[in-house]
Amino acid sequence: MQCKVCKCEMRITNGKIVTEGDNSPDTPTKVYRELEYRCRAKQCPEYDKVQAVQRVELT
Ligand SMILES: [Zn+2]
């Protein structure tokens, strides 16, 4: 994924762990890790800001 300002390829960092469905016994609990996409260009105004978050299911 590219930075929307400078178009460089963003770096991915591990964000928080998210769980879903654990407040109902009928739905299986799913656990996700959120990956954060941040611009890596120091001269960019978006540098080190999270521009996108992607959820990856943990098994
Ligand atoms: Zn950028």
Encode the helix/strand succession as letters.
EEE
Q: Largest sheet, if any?
A: 3 strands, antiparallel
End-to-end Cα distance, whole Å, is 24 Å
Q: How many strands in all?
A: 3
Oligomer: single chain
Q: Roughly what is the average pLDDT, rounded to an integer?
A: 94
Helix content: under 10%
What strand order characterises the main sheet? 1-2-3
| Structural class estimated from helices and strands | mainly beta
Cα radius of gyration in angstroms: 15 Å
Spell out the key features of this protein.
59 residues, mainly beta, three-stranded antiparallel beta sheet, rod-shaped, binds zinc ion
How are the secondary structure elements laid out?
Layout: E1 11-20, E2 30-38, E3 50-58
Antiparallel strand pairs: 1-2, 2-3
The protein binds zinc ion.
Structural notes for this entry:
- The protein has 59 residues and is mostly beta strands.
- The protein has one domain.
- 0% of the residues lie in helices and 47% in strands.
- It contains no helices and three strands.
- It has strands spanning 11-20, 30-38, 50-58.
- A three-stranded antiparallel β-sheet has the order 1-2-3, with no helix packed on it.
- The model has no long low-confidence stretch (mean pLDDT 94).
- It binds zinc ion.
- Zinc ion (ZN) is lined by residues 3, 5-6, 8, 39, 41, 44, 46.
Offer a quick outline of the entry.
This protein is mainly beta and 59 residues long.
